[in-house]
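Worked Example 4.2. Consider the chain below.
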Amino acid sequence: MSALKVPAQGCPTCPYLRATPPGIWDASEYEKLAEYDEQPGQLPVLAAFHCHQENATGQATVCRGWLSVHRGAVAVRLACARGALQASQVQALPEEPQYYATGAEAAAAGLAGVEYPGDDARKKIAGLVRRGVAR
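Applying the procedure from the previous section yields the following structure tokens:
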């Protein structure tokens, strides 16, 4: 497994970022976020969550918001064991209150705007499409 880039800061359209307008991403993208909240009796997700900007940059990049929120997750530990992430990179991340506390919280916030994205969300979506982030 090759190394994942760890951004110095989250992107402005990160679904974990509280400042990101709701409804930018498809509902299926938001639903993935809660799956990383490990619950007793639930099998953990084993794959790292990649940044949505990866399509535009062409570089394998871990989502900074995901990494900040789920730094203790099995997927993060597995990525470290496989050499895709360095434990020192994860440990060096500061506490960042601008991110939602859990994947479920981020998912609920984002899903609230999926059906009727507001003006801010529509502007961000247009920018993502221009950059080639949309698939």
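Residues 27-131 form one domain. The longest helix spans residues 119-131. Compare this with Example 4.1 before moving on.
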